[in-house]
Amino acid sequence: MATARFTQMIDGTFDEYQHIQQLEHEYVAALPDRLLVALRALDSGLGGYPVTRFEHSLQSATRAERDGADIDWIVAALLHDIGDELAPWNHSQLAASIIRPYVRAEVTWVVNVHGIFQQHYYGHHVGLDPDAREVYRGHRWFDSAETFCLRWDQAAFDASYRSEPLEHFEPMLREVFARPAFDPSIVGDEVATS
Fold it and tell me: CA-based angle 14:16:22, to the nearest 5?
């Protein structure tokens, strides 16, 4: 069977859905390949910064790794701006949605809010509230978001910085995305059930 014949999902047969499920498993397994392509595409995206969004991503991940961060943080730093191409006004939430099934809740939360935390460093220049992050003051992961942005995100625009190449991070990306989706032992119960 190449494709299902139903015109409404309710009419699908067991065999059709078994076939589709097998194809879906193969498609999900290839997610790291699509993420690598999307990262490389950031090399020709929005201009004007001292480095491309691709180099910024590599530099963020390199800084996280050199700081001794674990694999979840390194992969999050690599992918935190992957949403820039398709969701410029909510890129943080798009990136968080991509990593959410595979990393602990703290990391997902930080990526989700990093755009707001980043405003602290430039908002006053463009009419945005540099203190918008204060709404999260007191949140248990506020300090993690502050560290992520201060040390790995806002600092990753140095054209003379020697970042690791994408190939260096590829095994880490593949390892994280090979995890079972929403495994409570990784993502925590609050994310697995929400």
Answer: 100
Q: Tell me what pLDDT residue 11 has.
A: 95
Q: 36: which 2 tokens?
A: 């690598």
Annotated domain spans of the chain? 12-192
Burial class (CB in 10 A: 0-12, 13-18, 19+), 22: exposed
Query: Using CA atoms in the order 71, 73, 75, 77, what is the torsion angle rounded to 10 degrees?
Result: -150
Amino acid 125 reads H
Q: Under CATH, domain 12-192 is a member of which superfamily?
A: Hypothetical protein af1432 (1.10.3210.10)
Asked whether the whole model's pTM tops 0.85, one would answer yes
How confident is the model over 22-41, as pLDDT tens digits? Answer: 999 999 999 999 999 999 99
Q: What is the mean pLDDT of the chain?
A: 95
What does the DSSP 8-state code read for residue 103? S
Asked whether residue 193 carries a pLDDT value surpassing 80, the answer given is no
Give the closest residue to 157 by CA, choosing from 90, 43, 68, 60. Answer: 60
**pLDDT (0 to 100) of residue 45:** 79
Q: Is 138 left (phi over 0), alpha (psi -120 to 50) or beta?
A: left
